[in-house]
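Box 4.2: Ligand-aware structure prediction
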Amino acid sequence: MALFSAEGWLFLLRWFHFLAGITWIGLLYYFNFVQTPFFATAEPPVRTGMLAGSLVGRALWWFRWGAMLTFITGWLYILHMMFHGYGGVREFFASAYGWKIFFGGMLGSLMWFNVWFVIWPAQKIVIASATQVAKGGQAIAEAAARGQRSGFASRTNTLLSIPMLFFMGSASHLSMGDPRGPGAKIGALILLAIVMIATEVNAMKGTTGPGKKILATLNGTFWGGFILTAILYFGLAGLMR
Ligand code: HEM
């Protein structure tokens, strides 16, 4: 039976990858499209109740573990393609498939980093603060600032999800030529590095300026995501044959 062949096991890995991916990104969109706008106008006791009453904590559990499983299954798949599919790192990066999935995988990995090392640590403080308030105590002083930074990182992830899914899906389903030579590979790496560093610096430090403006609204976030996709796609396609 095909399911119990090597192809079948690989397919099961992909299946778990999508399942985990939709769990993660579904909750990311819930936070950004539903919960954050709701919190912005909700009465403080309602907000505190949702935070202290573990609604947000439960959502964050599925969110961060969905991200972890997506990340692990995604990189297992890449390693498989690199060493079994293409027969080595050099061969993998001599293909357009390798570059497209690398672009998607790296953007997804940056998002995973934001979940585990920015959003979750900040949300732990926000929840602890709300729990103290619910019990009649004082709010934790840094909770508001940490919550704001986490919101910014979460908006950054929403923006990045647009090019990330474009490259993930296009790797096998939208043809592109292979890299022209070593210069093209270096160019692709520089392009990806500039985009990743600029978005991450903005997520970590940005409080004013155009970066903040783009992420301030969902409209700006969508536009930012589609424009970034175009920059990455046309940039990469320009470096390929
Ligand atoms: C965290 C980093 C991620 C890595 C390293 C990664 C890696 C991969 C790899 C290697 C594939 C197989 C591509 C192929 O040969 O067709 C893949 C496919 C896929 N991934 Fe990811 N991925 C990541 C994040 C995500 C996320 C967050 C989602 C959100 C839903 C996602 C959704 C998908 C989908 C739908 C496919 C199937 C695409 C197709 O059949 O063409 N991935 N991913």
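In the box above, the bound molecule is protoporphyrin IX containing FE. The chain has nine helices and no strands.
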